[in-house]
Amino acid sequence: MSSTHADSLLNALAELTTLRRPRLMLRTARYGTLDYQRETDLRRILRLPATPAPGVASLRLLMELECQHEAMRTRPPQEIGNPWRATRHIEVLIALIAEARLLAEAVTPAP
Known about the structure:
Elements: H1 3-16, H2 23-32, H3 38-46, H4 56-74, H5 86-107
Helix pairs in contact: 1-4, 1-5, 2-5, 3-5, 4-5
């Protein structure tokens, strides 16, 4: 793995540590990672014809999507637009956590 790729990956993982979401949402998402099936779930969540390869690009797509859901969740109730759906937001968080774990394992040196 090149130094630039590793730096990019570490930066993406570091960004995830700054996310602040309600505890119940995160607990639910962590529990949901037990049933996460990358091949089918990631393709469905990202609405792609094929499952993307693991990597920073997939993680960034999930981070952007989660940010959009968070913006819908926290906007004033009187605003009109796409309704926030808790289940969809949790699905994105599940994928985000699972993909981050997958990439963190790839970066972590074996003992």
